[in-house]
């Protein structure tokens, strides 16, 4: 078959030995048709072998919306968690015949409207929307079970179990919309452990400003023996500043990260951190967006990656 010619339903029908109508029913998952599993498998395999791609515009006109799902991610929320989430979301959407498009940058109503003006998506998912609308315990990870609240508690509990009762939460300077939620969850986790709620301080990106911020924290709260980073990037900046200030880690202070980036293992000392597998959260998001059953999707529990900084 010529590589320049578009593969059609007729091609798939001929290759699988069924009618064009049957191919259409199978590839469109028409629930009103009784077609054997063997025939469905044969049609789908033929479509994959031939490289058949549905005509998106025609399908959008027929169904009222395209088979495209838009995910918008605010730049301040990008990290290992978001990458794992996107992988699960993409895989699950593909399994149900949909395509994922990801929009990076500031998530604003006008930005979303520009997307809607250009395409008619099946759904638009705003990454971290529950945290932006005051419903942070209603996230797809179910808050204190396997969502952000539980992950914050895991970070604080790891420090407490190693004898640290006075901690500080290091926040990024970019004003992440998750900052307030992280501080709230961290404080509640500490209270449940029977220790003082951690204070917080902002870690600037400038090296000298970061050194000043860490020095100010230690001078004002000498009782602090552990610093919990908002993410690994923030924790690594704190590590560098402590070294510059002549403070030993973990001898003088413990430092723990969050989100397990590839750079934590390379630091000196290597960075203890929280690893979160968000792929199942992405799959949950896909099924919710498509109106499908979410039974059987259980996220892998977050875990501590134990290294030398604690």
SSE diagram, text form:
Elements: H1 9-16, H2 20-27, H3 37-50, H4 56-63, E1 68-73, H5 80-95, E2 99-104, H6 109-118, E3 123-126, H7 129-132, H8 148-160, E4 167-172, H9 179-193, E5 199-203, H10 207-220, E6 226-229, H11 232-244, E7 254-256, E8 273-275, H12 279-290, E9 303-305
Parallel strand pairs: 1-2, 1-3, 4-5, 4-6, 6-7
Antiparallel strand pairs: 8-9
Fold and architecture overview:
The chain has 310 residues and is α/β, with parallel strands linked by helices. Helices cover 44% and strands 13% of the residues. It is built from 12 helices and 9 strands. The strands form 3 sheets. Strands 5-4-6-7 form a 4-stranded parallel beta sheet, with helices on both faces. It has a 3-stranded parallel beta sheet with strand order 2-1-3, covered by helices on one side. Helix 11 links the parallel strand 6 and strand 7. Helix 1 crosses helix 3 and helix 5 crosses helix 12. The mean pLDDT is 86.
